């Protein structure tokens, strides 16, 4: 296995395990990791238009932001506010969505508490630098940079 191939598989392995651990914690909240991500982005950035939300999501490709939002609106967690121009629909959290997002934060905090000991003593800054360089070449990496408040190339 080449170093680049191993890098790819290690990133995939960590992503899958992290997502599995988060999904297990979110089951008690009644959300998927993708739905939880939508709520967290809206918590940080609402009100947002759907296209703006889509630019900030990292959840798996093929997951349509509009379908995710539709499900969350039906569940009473996200509100759609139509402005004067019917095309400018702003998304936000409902009071129930705000309550639910606090449960998401608790689930995420528990996950990070579990992962932190695995990262201690390592070279986290160098690892993050490498991951940012690679991820920055892709839309999902751009979304992470935007959410972290870092400059985005191109």
Automatic annotation (TrEMBL):
Stored InterPro entries: HTH_MarR-typ (IPR000835), MarR/SlyA-like (IPR039422), WH-like_DNA-bd_sf (IPR036388), WH_DNA-bd_sf (IPR036390)
Domain HTH marR-type, chain residue ranges per copy: 24-120
Record key words, sorted: DNA-binding
Keyword Transport among record annotations: no
GO terms under biological process: response to stress
Any Pfam family matching the protein: HTH_27
GO molecular function (one): DNA binding
Protein's name in the database: DNA-binding MarR family transcriptional regulator
């Amino acid at each position: 296995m080449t170093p680049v191939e191993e890098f790819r598989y290690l990133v995939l392995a960590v992503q899958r395990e992290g997502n599995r651990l988060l999904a297990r914690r979110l089951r008690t909240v009644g959300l998927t990791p993708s739905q939880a991500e939508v709520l967290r982005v809206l918590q940080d950035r609402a009100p947002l238009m759907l296209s703006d939300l889509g630019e900030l999501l990292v959840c798996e490709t093929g997951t349509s932001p509009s379908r995710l939002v539709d499900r969350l609106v039906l569940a009473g967690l996200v509100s759609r506010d139509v402005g004067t121009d019917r095309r400018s629909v702003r998304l936000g959290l409902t009071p129930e969505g705000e309550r639910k997002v606090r449960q998401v934060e608790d689930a995420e905090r528990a996950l990070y508490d579990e992962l932190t000991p695995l990262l201690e003593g390592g070279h986290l800054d160098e690892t993050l630098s490498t991951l940012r360089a690679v991820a920055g070449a892709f839309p999902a990496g751009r979304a992470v940079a935007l959410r972290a408040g870092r400059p985005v190339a191109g």
